[in-house]
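Database export, one record per block. Field names are fixed; values are copied verbatim from the stored entry.
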Amino acid sequence: MRIPLLVRLIVVAIFIGVEVFLIAHYTMGGSDSAPTYTAAQSQLRGSGIELFPPTGGYHSVRAVIVFFGNDRAFTRAHRQLSAGLASDGYAVIGVTLAPLFADVPNDGATRARVLQSRIDALVSSAYAEFSAWPDKAIRNTHVPLVLMGQSLGAEIAIWSAGNSANPALRGVVALSPASRTALRPIAIRLDGTVVSSPADSVAVSELVRTTVSRPTNLRIAIVRGSHDRLRSADSGIVAAGGSHAKVFRVPMAGHSLARLAIVGLLSRRALDWVLEPAAVRGRANAAPSTR
């Protein structure tokens, strides 16, 4: 049965109206250019690091978010999302992956150790910089930490969370992870598909299983476009994560999550879920869910 033209036009008009509202509410005022804030921590003044401190008069930071870009760059869409989160009181540290991977050894075990050491140093500097926001003389050890990333950056965030010893870490918001990863920027993606699959790749579901098995009760939120060609990865991720993993589906979005303002809304919902207090988690349904 064909849907009448008038009904289709009404649906399209409603969708456009919702998009306009979301743009105004979640991204208006957010810049797509690199911020000009200069960090006190020397580790955060290196190449490929962009800082988005809380804006809008927030008297303390809601959480410190370390946001890894994809295998190509920390993109305009990443900056817009980071600026929007900063307007909600989060401190976001944007990370371009290329400098992070520079001169990392090829040997698997050595490469993992060097990469994790670099990430740990970066995360520690980010937390020292912003957990005391805005009074740098007062350390607030109760500020939560979240790792975030898109595509390869999402896989890096999940893997790093499973190896991190930072007690402030609460979980991961992973945008568009694949089913497998080599944890290196050589798995070339074209139109949302993995063109090459290195021999040393690992299943992302196994990284998730390792991360959620930690006694620190970490959560992993997957933000996924409904049109992402890699969306089949989600069933394995949720199965591995159990009640610690949840998918937040972005309607009409692809792998890049770059075109719809609703991405900001779903990313915030994912972040809220990761940061839920322990008391709220205890009342939640133990069964894994997707939406």
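Remark 1: The chain has one domain: 5-290.
Remark 2: The radius of gyration is 19 Å.
End of record.
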